[in-house]
Fold:
Amino acid sequence: MQCSVCGAEAEDLTSGDFDGLVVRCKRCGEYEVADGALNAFLRLDYDARVAALEKAREAAAGDRPTVRADDLS
Ligand SMILES: [Zn+2]
Structure:
């Protein structure tokens, strides 16, 4: 798959345990995008996607970050 943030080749770690996309990217690391946020997330430009991921990463405090719809506003 392609990374949803940077477009680089990435690994799809999505499992049934999580309602959304789980990605491992060499550039962006591991992250999740919740189902409810995915469409809006993919419509953002690159800088905005990076910013949303950074915001999720701060909120996760060391855990795998999850981009949620709330992070996109
Ligand atoms: Zn990436």
Remarks:
- The pocket of zinc ion is lined by residues 3, 5-6, 8, 10, 25, 27-28 (CB under 6 Å).
